[in-house]
Amino acid sequence: MSSCVLKLSKIQLKKLQEHYQNDLLKKNIPYSEFSAKKNGVSITAYTSGKVVFQGKDAEAEASKWGSIAETPKKKSGTTLPAGFAQLSVIGSDEVGNGSYFGPLCVCAAYAEKEHLAELNRIGVKDSKMLTDPQIRQIAEILKELIPYKLLVVTPKKYNEIQPKYNAVHMKVALHNQAISLLLAQISPQKPEAILIDQFTPPANYQKYVKSEVRQVKEPIYFTTKGEQYHLAVAAASIISRASFLEELDQASQALGIKVPSGAGAPSDKAAAALLKRGGIQLLSNYAKLHFANTEKAQKLL
Ligand code: MG
Question: InterPro entries from the entry (predicted)?
Fold first, then answer.
């Protein structure tokens, strides 16, 4: 369990209390203004202005409010600047990488500080905490609200690229391209920072990105669970996921069977059905062939 301590002004403390008004606890802690619990993080605000955040995601919750006295050191070695959650940030994330069926969707989204309150209001958060219908609904609003660049690699395209580019290299190229296009789109505006939801060690990213023609020159931060550190990553994740779901739906409709997400036994079964119907030719339009599921499906036949 981690904990973080912030020192806030009286005005900030009031804002904090308003923000957590639905999560307040009826605890009488000496010298405290209030205590609350949200997303598994306990928050205790003292009359002195000291605020203690405790719990697994204490850092992420605290970073919404200001500079943490001790900036968290990430496992990856990346350190985000103080008050990172409040900056104007381009965040980037991908969906579909671990699913046999469906595309690989990469999105970069720009969340300006002026938009952060609105993003909170429409429910932008870690997509793992949202249902699929919520994700679709929020994605629609997001696409109207903030600048973003979405790249969708269909399974057909993926299978063409994959022998040349391994999966990590492909993702590096896509994140770089999405960010580069988004930077061009929002120019002359510039984000205060760029954050990629980390999928490979930063050194590995730098190695692969060197071969890209339009390499993003701005410094990039990497962190796992990026959606907890900035709403831009959460927004990118929601837009990618909605697109992935949409593509799976379309595949299901075209094929007349439920095309599953993931890479488990249901994927093997669906793949076997497609192989029977149209061979590897048909399957290659819907699935990432290099996954072990292809072999398992062939054995099922
Ligand atoms: Mg991710």
Answer: RNase_HII/HIII, RNase_HII/HIII_dom, RNase_HIII, RNase_HIII_N, RNaseH-like_sf, RNaseH_sf, TBP_dom_sf
User: What would the two tokens of residue 195 be?
Assistant: 């954050």
Q: Are 85 and 230 in contact (CB under 8 A)?
A: yes
Q: pLDDT tens digits, residue range 134-171?
A: 999 999 999 999 999 999 999 999 999 988 888 899 99
Ligand 1: distance of its center to the CA of 301 in Å? 34
Distance 34 CA to ligand 1 centre (A): 35
Binding-site residues from annotation: 93-94, 197
Q: What is the pLDDT of residues 26-52, one digit of tens each?
A: 888 888 889 999 988 999 998 888 888
Contact (Cβ atoms closer than 8 angstroms) between residue 214 and residue 175: no
Residue 106 falls in which region: left (phi positive, over 0), alpha (psi -120 to 50) or beta: beta
For residue 171, the CA-to-ligand 1 centroid distance in Å is 10
Cβ-contact 149, 182 below 8 angstroms: yes
55: number of Cβ within 10 Å: 19
Binding residues for a divalent metal cation: 93-94, 197
Distance 13 CA to ligand 1 centre (A): 33
CB burial readout 113-129, b (16+ within 10 A) else e: eebbeebeeeebbbbee
Distance between Cα 184 and ligand 1 center (Å): 23
**Beta-carbon count within 10 A of 72 CB:** 19
